[in-house]
């Protein structure tokens, strides 16, 4: 247990976006850079390894009734690396849309500007196709094939202009030894890129995060990722996921501990169970349930929940079948979790919508800090998690104040001391 449990904070977990309905928060706060910097500094001081920004490349009229991150995550990361000292930033970029040359430049720039603090969450996207000239989303297999080629091109571009090429030969009039900067001449199924990159590459490969859940996604993560995020609501599913992933990691010829599994997690905390339940139920307002009815359609349009009564079980005719989900081109993993919840004996629509709204398919606990620490320890020791990506719950500040000290007391976690994100996460060097 040399590495210890690692912790990443999610973007909305505190600060004005999470607290937007409270009377002291104004819309101007949501877009105020100082507020975002204050949150990042708070996350850094709390001892998280990194702050994570998602990205979805399309306006969602239901989800965006709540404030979302009001900036492109890479642009915000560029602004915040100058306002923090050691915190890592995990920023999302799609391989389905956009070009590897652009992304290789931006990420190399962020890596060098931050001293190795920026990670790339590689996503294949399940929305946004109409913003990029496509009528439909490519099938999952195609998205992952393109993702692999995208990544291979980015790696080759990063290597094409190594930092050692900068020789600063003043007498000879050469800042760069151009013989070290090589074309990549890539011609593949999805991309033709001659290279080389016109900016120096990163000192070492930035940390790659991925969240593949399908067989193709797991294979991609096992081959490429340093960290996987995953939505798994209970230990059994987490162990099943981690087992399948680790088998693929071994099959890809990598050491099993060269990849960290970090499930999403959120806690609703109280001094006793009743107080924790009250903390949770404060977040269940009628409009939250109504949004969940519509948001779930994003996962599968076979969830027909809009006209149903809240306090009755959901008829099977209003739910997708397994075959419906298998045939879907979008994200299946979350829909499968919601379907499982809906099929639990006695589950009412209210119960399912509450879970969708508050847990989003992630591991969630409504409990005392001690019970939460027990459960996180259980997942860690069982090999289901190397750490957690911590979301809002009843307030991440409470998690920081009440749970993190318990994890430290038990010797499970200690604040990171490294500057670069690879070091903070205890990951081996790559590339
Ligand atoms: C914690 C977490 C964060 C994610 N963030 C994003 C994101 O920012 N953008 C995105 O398009 N997909 C995101 N995803 C979806 C994954 O990239 C992936 O598509 C999903 O887990 C389904 O896996 P599959 O693609 O193998 O079916 C996220 C998933 C998880 C679990």
Could you describe the 3D structure shown?
This protein is of the alpha/beta class. It folds into 2 domains: 6-266 and 381-424, Alpha-Beta Barrel (TIM Barrel), CATH 3.20.20; 271-367, no CATH class. Helices cover 40% and strands 14% of the residues. The protein has helices spanning 15-18, 27-30, 33-46, 73-81, 100-114, 140-160, 215-224, 235-251, 273-281, 286-295, 322-327, 333-343, 349-359, 369-382, 396-409, 421-424; strands spanning 6-10, 50-53, 88-94, 118-123, 166-169, 174-176, 186-187, 192-193, 208-210, 227-230, 260-269, 363-367, 387-390. An 8-stranded parallel barrel has the order 1-2-3-4-9-10-11-13, surrounded by 7 helices. A two-stranded antiparallel ribbon has the order 5-6. The model has no long low-confidence stretch (mean pLDDT 95). The structure holds flavin mononucleotide (FMN). Flavin mononucleotide binds at residues 54-56, 92, 123-126, 211-214, 217, 229-231, 264, 331-333, 389.
């Amino acid at each position: 247990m040399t590495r210890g449990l690692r912790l990443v904070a999610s973007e909305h977990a505190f600060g004005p976006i999470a607290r937007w309905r409270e009377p002291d928060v104004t819309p101007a706060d949501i877009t105020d850079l100082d507020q975002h910097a204050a949150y990042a500094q708070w996350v850094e001081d709390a001892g998280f390894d990194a702050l994570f920004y998602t990205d979805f490349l399309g306006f969602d009229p239901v989800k965006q009734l709540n404030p979302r991150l009001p900036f492109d995550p890479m642009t915000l990361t560029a602004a915040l690396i100058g306002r923090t000292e050691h915190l890592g930033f995990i920023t999302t970029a799609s391989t389905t849309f956009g070009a590897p040359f652009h992304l290789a430049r931006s990420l190399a720039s962020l890596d060098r500007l931050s001293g190795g603090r920026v990670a790339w969450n590689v996503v294949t996207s399940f929305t946004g196709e109409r913003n990029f000239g496509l009528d439909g989303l490519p099938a999952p297999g195609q998205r992952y094939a393109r993702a692999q080629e995208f990544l291979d091109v980015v790696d080759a571009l990063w290597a094409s202009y190594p930092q050692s090429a900068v020789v600063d030969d003043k007498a000879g009039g050469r800042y760069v030894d151009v013989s070290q900067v090589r074309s990549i001449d890539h011609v593949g199924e999805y991309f033709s890129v001659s290279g080389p990159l016109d900016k120096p590459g990163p000192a070492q490969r930035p940390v790659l995060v991925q969240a593949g859940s399908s067989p193709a996604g797991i294979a991609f993560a096992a081959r490429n990722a340093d960290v996987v995020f995953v939505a798994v609501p209970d230990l059994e599913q987490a162990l099943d996921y981690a087992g399948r992933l680790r088998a693929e990691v071994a099959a890809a010829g990598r050491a099993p501990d060269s990849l960290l599994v970090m499930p999403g997690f959120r806690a609703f905390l109280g001094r006793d169970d009743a107080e924790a339940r009250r903390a949770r139920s404060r977040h269940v307002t009628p409009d939250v349930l109504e949004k969940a009815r519509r948001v779930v359609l994003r996962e599968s349009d076979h969830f027909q929940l809009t006209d149903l009564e809240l306090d009755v079980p959901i008829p099977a005719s209003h739910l997708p079948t397994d075959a419906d989900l298998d045939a879907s081109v979008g994200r299946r993993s979350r829909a499968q979790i919601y379907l499982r919840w809906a099929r639990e004996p006695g589950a009412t629509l209210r119960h399912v919508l509450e879970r969708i709204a508050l847990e989003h398919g992630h591991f969630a606990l409504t409990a005392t800090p001690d019970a939460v620490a027990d459960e996180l320890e259980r997942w860690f020791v069982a090999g289901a998690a190397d750490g957690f990506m911590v979301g809002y719950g009843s307030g991440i500040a409470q998690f920081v104040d009440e749970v993190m000290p318990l994890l430290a007391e038990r010797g499970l976690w200690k604040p990171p001391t490294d500057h670069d994100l690879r070091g903070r996460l205890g990951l081996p060097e790559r590339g």
